[in-house]
Write a structure and sequence with these properties.
- Helices cover about 35% and strands about 35% of the residues.
- The chain is of the alpha+beta class and about 130 residues long.
- The chain has one domain: Heat Shock Protein 90 (2-Layer Sandwich), CATH 3.30.565.10.
- A five-stranded antiparallel sheet has the order 1-2-3-5-4, with helices on one face.
């Protein structure tokens, strides 16, 4: 698998989340994703970007355009240096929330993509990598 191009976006404000969502849509269009595929990756990106900002205190989103033989994809990596997640399995369960949301964020994002990977430790921050393949 080869990374064709990449970019890093800062997530420090609500406006940064909007800009990140727009960038993901542009990259998905460039990768030839259908409207449904675009919507899925943008929705997952929006949720993870908001989590990075609200729970992680801000961080980054790395976009990577992928080529794996005949497959093309888009990988997004969200990283923060926030408080981390003590119980990842619980956080992935629908209905669980550590804030005032509906508790569908992480689990919902996972269902919208082909590959989902999360690493987090209390006091060390969180890293979530998602990939959507065309």
């Amino acid at each position: 698998m080869a990374v064709i191009k990449h970019d890093v976006r800062q997530l420090r404000s609500s406006e940064d989340v909007v800009v990140a969502r727009r960038a993901v849509r542009e990259w998905a269009v460039a990768a030839g994703f259908s409207l449904v595929e675009q919507t899925k990756i943008v929705t997952a990106a929006s949720e993870l970007a908001r989590n990075t900002l609200h729970y992680g205190g801000g961080g980054t989103m790395r976009l990577e355009s992928l080529n794996d033989g005949p497959k093309r994809g888009l990988r997004l990596i969200f990283e923060d240096q926030g408080p981390g997640i003590a119980d990842i399995e619980r956080a992935l369960q629908d209905g669980y929330t550590s804030g005032s949301g509906l508790g569908l964020g992480l689990g919902g994002a996972r269902r919208l993509v082909n590959d989902f990977d999360i690493h987090s430790r209390p006091g060390e921050g969180t890293r979530v990598a998602i990939t959507r393949w065309k």
